[in-house]
Write a structure and sequence with these properties.
The protein contains 3 helices and 4 strands. By secondary structure, the protein is of the alpha/beta class.
């Protein structure tokens, strides 16, 4: 079984992709800081980590058995990135 980490797993795309991959037989690990996603969106079989991966020490809390990463986390507003580009880059 392949282990996949999905960042932004509590969002619309991340939660639906995780359901799709679970149905295909993958084991899903999910990361989300819940700043815009909703915990209720996360499928029950996802091993969930509530954290912000931009904080360096949090990466060490993840399993080492990850085969692939699908990165879907991050804010999607172009306006926000123009208003405060440094904060946007740090996330």
């Amino acid at each position: 079984m392949k282990n996949i980490l999905i960042t932004g797993v509590a969002g619309f795309i991340g939660s639906n992709l995780s359901r799709f991959l679970i149905n295909k037989g993958y084991r899903i690990f999910g990361v989300d800081d819940l700043s815009s996603g909703d915990y209720e969106n996360i499928p029950k079989t996802v091993e969930f980590f509530e954290m912000d991966l931009s904080e360096k020490d949090n990466k060490s809390k993840l399993p080492s058995s990850i085969d692939s990463i699908i990165h879907l986390a991050g804010q999607s507003s172009g306006e926000v990135s123009f208003e405060d580009p440094i904060a946007d880059l740090n996330k």
